[in-house]
Amino acid sequence: METVWIVLVGSFIVVVLAISGYFAYGQIKTRQLEDEVLLWIESHRGRLTGENRFILNEGILQLTFTEYPRDVIMAVWIKLIRDKVVIRDPMDNEWCIR
Q: How many C-beta neighbours within 10 Å does residue 40 have?
């Protein structure tokens, strides 16, 4: 009977560690992508003048950073909007960098 409990507790610990490892891996990938996107944006922002803009949306991020999964890209996209790194152009309502 004692062996059954040891197996159950051991299985529970393995499952909990696997789930927390999955979420930790997602957070690491999100921070990694966020750093890469911000560097990419700054490299494009240097080319902008007051008259032009750089259109950016989640589709462009998915095409540019294909090595990252969609959920990580969406998390970074939401953070970019929340931090007002990308804004909506009042003329045509496109997401862009000015």
A: 14
Query: What CA–CA distance (Å, rounded) separates 27 from 47?
Result: 31
Token readout for 26 is 């997602």
Residue 93 is assigned to a structural domain of this protein: yes
Condensed to tens digits (0 to 9), the pLDDT of residues 15-67 reads 999 999 988 888 888 899 999 998 988 888 888 777 788 888 889 999 999 99
| Closest to 65 in 3D by CA, of 25, 36, 87, 27 | 36
For the chain, the domain total comes to 1
Contact in structure between 80 and 61 (CB atoms under 8 Å): no
- Residue 70: give the domain boundaries: 27-97
Closest CA to 97 of 64, 87, 78: 87
SS3 32: helix
Q: Is residue 4 part of a domain?
A: no
